[in-house]
Amino acid sequence: MARRPWQAWNLSWPMLAWTVLLASLPWWLGLPLLLALAAVLLVLPQRLIEHVPMIRRSLRWGLPGVLFGLQRALGGDAFAWGAALLGALVGYTLLAGLEAWLDRGHGHVPVTSASTSAEWPELALASIGPTADIIELQLPAWQPGDAGLTDPCDGSSVCHQAGGYRFAGDRVIDGVGPHVAFSPAGRWFVARMAHDRGVVLWDRERDRQHHLEGWQLCGWYREQPWLARRDGEMPLALSAVLGHDDENRLSQG
């Protein structure tokens, strides 16, 4: 909501008075005041968080007053005004760097008509970044493959044969043990290797197999497998597991 004229004046007149005060003081008194305010922002930003906007405005409005005092002390001639302009360039460059450093943790706050008028506490409490996604794995439903399996996708029977399984269409998954499972929607088929040396994952949608020695299936998340090397470890998505195995092969080679 836009500020009324009298509200804007109530915010501006203290800053105007501050500028006039510094312009009337010798520059060697005004400059230490500005440096002290800048030091306060650098050393105690969290303890004075509710006063940070006022201190920053004081720096922006106070710098012209100090520069006016400087040119007056130098005699008010062309050289004095040149020195004041150079001081303005250097001073506002340093001030912009200071404010950028103070705002370094709030660079993703969207700039809207509401946020431009918000003060520091509102910006500090604004949500930043994407919403956290809590991953809850659905445990695999292991079943003995030699007792007869039914394909959850089409209801056909999965034939168990020595060390493998034959699906409709003569698709064979071999070199595995008797413990198998399907993903919740049936896209994946997983079987433990003999002697629990790892798992074999079959992506039925892409017709791609992954033989992962030393890994065990922890569960499913959004129809994707998550695995770990041993109990108690943080599970990893399949893409991360494949990257791990690639790194291991490169290091061993």
List keywords for this structure.
253 residues, alpha+beta, 43% helix, disordered C terminus
Notes on the structure:
It is built from 7 helices and 12 strands. It has 253 residues and is α+β, with helices and mostly antiparallel strands. The longest helix is centred in the middle third of the chain and has 25 residues, at 78-102. It starts with a helix and ends with a helix.
Provide a concise account of the structure shown.
The chain has 253 residues and is an alpha+beta fold.
* Helix fraction bin: 40-55%
Name the beta content range. Answer: 15-25%
Largest sheet, spatial ordering of strands: 1-6-7-8-9
Terminal CA distance reads 65 Å
Number of helices: 7
Strand segment count = 12
Gross morphology: rod-shaped
The biggest beta sheet is recorded as:
5 strands, antiparallel
> Mean pLDDT, as a whole number?
76
Low-confidence stretches: 107-118, 247-253
Q: What structural class do you assign from the helix and strand content? A: alpha+beta
Along the chain, the helix and strand elements come as: HHHHHHEEEEEEEEEEEEH
Rg estimate, integer Å: 34 Å
